[in-house]
Amino acid sequence: MGMTMAEKILARHSGRKVVSAGDYVTAEVDQVCIYDSIVELNEDMEHAGLEGGLTRIWDKDRIVVLIDHSCPAMDKNVNSAIKHVKEREIVKRLGLPHFFDVKAGICHQVMLDKGFVAPGELVLVADSHTTIYGGINCGGTGVGEQELAWVLAKGSLWFMVPPAVKMNVSGRLGVGVMGKDVFLKVSGDYGVEVGSYKSMEWGGDAISAMSLDGRICIANQSVELGAKFSLFECDQKVLDFVTPRARRPFTPVAPDADAEYESVIEIDGGKIVPLVAQPHGFEVVKPADQYENVLINEAIVGGCANGRLEDIAMAAKILKGRKVHHDVRCIIGPASWEIYMAAMNAGYLQTLIEAECLVVHPHCGPCTGVMGTLAPGEVCITSTSRNFKGRMGSPEAFIYLASPATVAASAVTGHITDPRCFL
Amino acid sequence: METKIGTKIYQGKAHTFGDSINTDVISPGRWMREGLEVLKLHTMEAVRKDFYKDVTPGDIIVAGRNFGCGSHREPANSVMKVLGISAIVADSVARLYFRNGIAMGIPVFSAPGVSKIVNEGDEVQVKVTEEAVEVTNITTGAKVFGKPIPEVMRSVVEAGGILALLKAEMEHEKQTSS
């Protein structure tokens, strides 16, 4: 019996030739990352009676630490600032070599940019969106801080080998249709548990033709479908990105022809149109043109879901020579400084600033309500990761989720808009 | 008083919630950095204002599908302990919330159908054995069953959480090396 990509990654990392869905394995981890919650991790270890808190790290070269969620510290009551001081003390005490402080960007994009993740690897981050690395054929999944404490001591963690769902996207995506729309198509048609505890394994012509940024967006958002992993195959696009960056030799995984899938979902990529998820979740999804009567106050392109170069380029394309509607504030948040610089060098940032967008520094704030906070009754359309009630401020605000193209088009018109009229 | 997982029992008054109660609802971001004592005042407020006022220690949350979906944030688990919730049982539990709950020693179980047999205020018993998670509505007598906790997780539960297990292992290593 052949193996899926997830099975191959877990077999390889647990020293076995073969594993199959439902097996429990202890797998060695290639890389971990944590942000300011390393402070809670340290304190929780102390409270649990582990003397000195976090003291043991299996391999200091394998941990990335940074500050991205409140970055730089933004709260007036100084909690974040104090936490960041504690974080820096922990990093110094342990002598951790890969600390980026507030200077690099959102954790996942930093991991990608700086070559800490590679095809065929197993990577854990104390963050739900860790499924993102599947976009480059890397087994990434989120863990809590306390489980990460275990990993830091041992270099390994137990996993259930997940059953897999084959996601076959055929055809070719149309103009103005992005990776985000593929995710929204799946969440709308198949629900938010289609990937629960599973490995979603993507393929098909539309995926092969899709940009790496588009695949990375889908992998990122797959956690909203419940996924443990969301894996794409390694092709030349992945190698072109990874090879100059990777810090270690790597071996990609590909599914066997006779790999066993729990189910196969067929999607006609050519039939996907720009989509929008309405508040307060991902289940109710309709074509963007069906929401044209929804007036917006805020529009956001950014976050680890959609703050990559393709996303900013798309926003710039739509906003070039136009202005953000006078009733709208439009926030553009590149996911990392590497992307910020690339967008600057390509002229996108100038275009966006001329259009009266607020181009902000790379951090998680636009996605989490740390900035651009919504008042009761306000309406936002965002390409960040989540539209949950209360996520961006008031629980009485309304958050619609869409692609960067749809967000940018809506920023121009002041209401939710199918972007194809601008493309 | 607490016995091995084989016979672990939680009993209390039920508070019922619907499907897809996400961690932004359980642990709103804008209150998360203020500490658990402040956070608990805002837990669930997006769907039920002042929920904390209704909770008496030992109460049980009964929810629909996909409980705890969204962010990995541990305060969404630990706030339950501060509130006095003894256990959470849902039709299904999102992966990270489940793993965090077990790792942190804050019991969370899935038992498909539980949301259909429990109403707000019912007395509920959750019995966790090696064979199953058995949920009984004491008020009505109705029962549903969930799959048992995987064996590898049971060792974490028995230790009282993954940090307790890590402490025990590190002490064991120290003893064997000296």
Can you tell me about this structure?
Chain B: Belongs to the LeuD family. LeuD type 2 subfamily. Chain B: Pfam families: Aconitase_C. Chain B: GO terms for molecular function: hydro-lyase activity. Chain B: Residues 54-106 form the Aconitase A/isopropylmalate dehydratase small subunit swivel domain. Chain B: It comes from Candidatus Cryosericum terrychapinii. The complex is a heterodimer of chains A (423) and B (178). Chain A has 423 residues and is α/β, with parallel strands linked by helices. Chain A folds into 2 domains: 5-251 and 258-265, Aconitase, domain 3; 275-418, Aconitase, domain 3 (2-Layer Sandwich). Chain A has helices spanning 5-13, 38-47, 79-94, 107-113, 145-154, 179-190, 205-209, 212-221, 236-242, 303-306, 309-319, 337-345, 348-354, 365-368, 404-413; strands at residues 24-28, 31-34, 63-65, 98-99, 122-125, 139-142, 156-160, 164-170, 199-203, 229-232, 263-268, 275-277, 285-287, 298-302, 329-333, 358-359, 379-382, 398-402. A 7-stranded mixed beta sheet of chain A has the order 13-12-18-17-14-15-16, sandwiched between helices. In chain A, strands 4-3-2-5-6 form a 5-stranded parallel beta sheet. In chain A, strands 10-9-8-11 form a 4-stranded parallel beta sheet. In chain A, helix 2 crosses helix 5 (145-154), helix 6 packs parallel to helix 8 and helix 11 packs parallel to helix 15. A 7-stranded mixed beta sheet of chain B has the order 4-3-2-1-5-6-7. Chain B has a single domain (5-177), classed as Aconitase, domain 4 (Alpha-Beta Barrel). The mean pLDDT of chain B is 93. Chain B has helices spanning 23-26, 29-32, 36-39, 51-54, 75-83, 95-103, 114-117, 151-159, 162-177, and strands at residues 8-16, 60-63, 87-90, 108-110, 123-128, 133-137, 143-146. Helices cover 35% and strands 20% of the residues of chain B. In chain B, a hairpin with a 5-residue loop joins strand 6 and strand 7. The interface between A and B is large, with 50 and 40 residues.
